[in-house]
């Protein structure tokens, strides 16, 4: 679908409300994932993220 929108075959008729609806799912997913992780798992994820940021 994205390719068809990019090439002009179809129009993107999504309204701002549609886009807000989709982003709400991502916000819920992140909170749900964080709720299931242990403190040790969260710490390991943060450690890896910091290492990636500082390795550039």
Short description:
The chain is mainly α. It has three helices and no strands.
Report on the architecture of this protein.
The protein is an all-alpha fold. Helix content is 77%, strand content 0%. The chain starts with a helix and ends with a helix. The mean pLDDT is 82.
Helix run count? 3
| CA(first)-CA(last) distance | 35 Å
Provide the residue-averaged pLDDT.
Answer: 82
Strand content: under 5%
Radius of gyration, in angstroms, nearest whole number = 18 Å
List the helices and strands and how they pair.
Elements: H1 2-7, H2 16-36, H3 39-54
Question: Which descriptors apply to this entry?
Answer:
77% helix; elongated; mainly alpha
């Amino acid at each position: 679908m994205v390719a068809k929108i990019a090439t002009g075959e179809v129009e993107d008729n999504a309204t701002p409300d549609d886009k807000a609806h989709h982003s709400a799912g991502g916000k819920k997913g992140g909170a749900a994932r964080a709720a299931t992780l242990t403190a040790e798992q969260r710490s390991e994820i943060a450690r890896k993220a910091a290492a990636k940021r500082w390795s550039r």
